[in-house]
Structure formats: structure tokens, C-alpha cells
UniProtKB/TrEMBL annotation:
Name listed for the protein in its UniProt record: Transmembrane protein
Organism from which the protein derives: Candidatus Nanosyncoccus nanoralicus
Highest taxon of the lineage: Bacteria
Amino acid sequence: MTVKILVLVILSLNVATAAIYKFYRLLSENDSERFIHVKQFVFKSIKNEAADENNTITNYFLAHGFLNDPILSFVFLDKLFKPNCHLYYMQYDNFGYDAEAYTNQLYDKVSVITKEASKAGKKVENTAISISLGDQIVAPIEEVFDQVITINPCTYNCFINQKYRTIIAFCAPILFALEYGLGWLSFIPFISYGHNYYSITLIADQIYDMKHIKPSESIRLKNQPRKILLSRFDQFLDNRAIETYYPQADIQYVNCEHGTMSDPNDAQLYLLGVQKLFGQSKVTDYPYPWERKVVR
């Protein structure tokens, strides 16, 4: 009996302390943990470069989709980013995903950067680009950006088609129970996909938010002049529901399925689609030398 009680106590402590640490970490992570800040340098001058002429700092805030592969998720857009810009890639965490907490951290980051630029006497141009469930983070604070582009937004539960809403509704409680039942073990990134490893906690939390985040009835959010790129043959999302929810949006379609952007053909289609939404007549083939550096 004593052994059973001891085992139960150990298991209970495992679950309780893991849960406490998870929520503490979500609320306390600093900028270096939540954002990868990359500065793009183009050393050879570019004729009529807007950033130089207008003394403008251009920032891109990039919120990727499912799992956690921030930089690779946006490689296909490299040629659309302005020269000498700042790229802020959002990172998710194997210790837990919470869209609302991430939104607050993104808002704080944008506010600090904008204030610092103003103090330095410079203009700032903030653009947000989100993919899939990354829009859960961007959408609530859309008005703080000068421009928002979202690709296949999985912002709310109703944007997912009926087939996958049913699958998510079935899987979410199972993963939720597994996550908390395993305690600290659920943080271990042992699930391999693509170029990385992910934890049960990350996947369970993302699925949980996909199931539970409901659409806002705010007219302000619905009528935001956002730009949306949709896959015409999307197997996961309900494009009509997205069109209905955002009546004022500029919506473009690409003729492919819900892409991962890892397929070279799909990547090119998405690049051209985003290029249209940006209103750029051509992509930039940067003159060399140019490079990117992670800012510490």
C-alpha cells in the first residue's frame, strides 16, 4: 500500500509541477526565446531604394503555421522582402503553445520597436505575414500593423472544413489528456517531422486552440483591410467561410492544394500570389554582396 501511495504521489507531482512550469514559461519568456531577429544587409546600393530615401525602417513580423519551423516556412518569400530590412520570426515552444499569450508578446514587441524608431527620428513600416494557425496570433492585433498578409488562415475553428473539424474534435481531448498525463515527459521533442523534432505538448496545444478558438463578432476585426492568399483546392480549410467572414479583404487564389511551401512548384505559386498582394511588379534579385545576420 505504501509503495502505491508513493507512486501516486510521484505521478501527481510530475503532472502538477509540469503544468505549473508550462504556464510560467508561457508568461515569462523573453524576446530572444520568442523571436528570431534577422537583419538583412544589402551592401551594394539599389537605385531608388525607398528605405534610404524615406529614412524608413522596414520590419516584417512572421508567424508561421503548425509545429515550429519559423525560418524555413518563409524561405519562399525571400525575394519579396525589401533590402536592409528586419525580419522577426516568431518561435513556438515545445513547452507549450498559447495563441493569446503569443499575441500579447507580439504586441509588446511591435510597440517597443516602433517607439525606439520614433525616438531615433525614423519612420517605421511594420508588415505582418502569417501562415495557417499563425494568424491566430496576428489577427487580434491587426490594426497595429501597416499591412497584414495571411496565407491559408486557420484563425478560427469555423475556417476548417467539416471533415477536419470532426477529426480535430476527436483528437483534441485525447492529446490534451495525454499531455497532462505524461507531465514532464510530454515536453520531450521526440516526434520527428521534416527537419525538426516536436513535443506532444506543442502538438496538443496547437490542436486544442484549433478546436476552441471561435470567431470574433467584432465588426472592427471583420472589416480590417487585410490581404489573404487562399489555395483554390484546399483540402483542410473552408474558403467560403473565410470569404464570408472577411467581406472587405483583398483575396487572391493560387491553383494548388493547402501547401507546405516545401514543394518547389507550390512555393513558386505562393510567391507569385503574395507578390500580387504586395502590389509588386517584380521580385528582387539582390545584387551581391548581401547577407543575413541573427541580431543578438
